[in-house]
Amino acid sequence: MKIPYGKQHITEEDIEAVVKTLKSDFLTQGPAVSDFEEAFSKVVGSKYAVAFNNATAALHLSYKILNRDSLKKVFVTPITFASSSNCVLFENGIVEFVDIDPLTYNIDINLMEEKLRKNPTDYQGMIIVDFAGLPLNTEAFRKLADKYNLWIIEDACHAIGGSYRNSKNEIIKCGSGIYSDLTVFSFHPVKHVATGEGGMVTTNNEEVYRHLMNLRSHGIQRDEKLFLEASHGGWYHEMQELGYNYRMPDINASLGSSQIKRINSNIEKRSSIAMKYKDSFKNLPITFQKYNEENVFNAYHLFVIETDNRKILYEFLKERSVYTQVHYLPVYWHPYYQSIGFKKGLCPVAENYYTKCLSIPMFHSMTDLEQGYVVDTIKDFFSSFL
Ligand SMILES: Cc1ncc(COP(=O)(O)O)c(C=O)c1O
User: DSSP for 345-373?
Assistant: First the structure.
């Protein structure tokens, strides 16, 4: 039995949906993309959704559109996939890493506020990540952002289906655009919804939505009403700004529409796996993300444990065919970030977390037998090694 930390879940219905597209007139962006965008915005409760060929492209254009002044800094958490901060560097912007909260592993809002109090005009925005699927309290981040005139990009690549209760006891879904200007999702195979490669941005801002639509397809405008010059005829289209080919193909979008129908059962299953893990490990020297479970609904993209014995546990599990992963090396520890001047020691909480964290298997199709094996193997490790 080989058990990965995460994997896609493909059903016969998914395969039929893709085959239908393969037999249709469109392979690249066509009607399946708009259908997926519509289904996605309904699930998260946003006005608009724009599909991309991956979340990195989606983050790039999100930053490009919101960027007001490349000399103003952008707050990013160091415990994330590199794309969350790379998107700022793509446009020669300036990243300021803010340490994480040791309980939630999410960016620490108090440290961000401290930096803003000291240098209130140095910053223009924040890219905040719902790490492992745990939604941030975007209401609080919005309050801070409004005070200092910052924009918010929420990287919710881990958190489709996540939500929390705000101060008025309303349920705020990740991607609803109520507090964040733009929210970005990924459909990489280990995520909740897999399209091979794929990403999505949701927003409630019509102007930003139209701009994203334009930039993802070469900056070319095909809507006659929006032409800058008089149309030459039915074939006419205009490139109005320097754009990209960041389009999602219909093949991927049809898989996404089929997958997203199962989002509720997917999240419920992940939640029950998490509960079983927490219960099984309660007497072991292991800690987990801590948060108010009554008010915050974790989407559990990952199940992260912290242990002082991370490296030997990783090897022990691997020898027994349980393939875990580490999320993440603090981004600025990567040699590229070191080469552009970031120094180790910048975010001590994140660095300490990195020495202990391990993502153990968590995926929709995980069987009780598989989870039982993971639990027993981890228990064996602690009884034989400690
Ligand atoms: C938090 C986070 N942001 C961004 C990305 C980039 O997503 P993609 O692989 O779709 O470009 C990922 C993917 O792993 C991620 O986990």
Answer: TS-HHHHHHHHHEEEEP--TT--HHHHHH
Mean pLDDT (whole number) for 49-64: 98
- Pick from 8, 83, 86, 88 the residue to mutate for probing ligand 1's pocket: most ligand atoms within 8 Å of its CB: 83
Helix axes 138-147, 109-118, angle to 10 degrees: 0
- Residue 222 Cα, ligand 1 centroid: separation in angstroms? 30
> Same domain, yes or no, for 233 and 338?
no
229, 186: one domain: yes
Q: Which atom of ligand 1 sits closest to the CA of residue 83?
A: 4
Pocket test for ligand 1, best of 76, 87, 136, 188 (most atoms within 8 A of CB): 188
Q: Is residue 1 part of a domain?
A: no
Residue 384 — pLDDT band, cuts 50, 70, 90?
confident
Domain with 278 in it: what CATH number?
A: 3.90.1150.10
> For ligand 1, atom 7, which residue shows the shortest CA distance?
55
| Gap from CA of 361 to ligand 1 centroid (Å) | 18
Q: Final residue of a domain: which of 231, 260, 289?
A: 260
Q: Read off the tokens for 323.
A: 């393939």
87 Cβ below 6 A of ligand 1: no
Q: Which helix (H) or strand (E) holds 133?
A: none
pLDDT in tens, 253-304: 999 999 999 999 999 999 999 999 999 999 999 999 999 999 999 999 999 9
Kindly state whether residue 5 falls inside one of the protein's structural domains: no
Rounded distance, CA 75 to CA 114, Å? 12
Q: What residues have CB less than 8 Å from 60, skipping those under 6 apart?
A: 87, 90, 91, 244, 246
**Percentage of the chain modeled with pLDDT above 90:** 98
Q: Each residue of 107-151: pLDDT tens digit?
A: 999 999 999 999 999 999 999 999 999 999 999 999 999 999 999
Whether residues 256 and 267 share a domain: the answer is: no
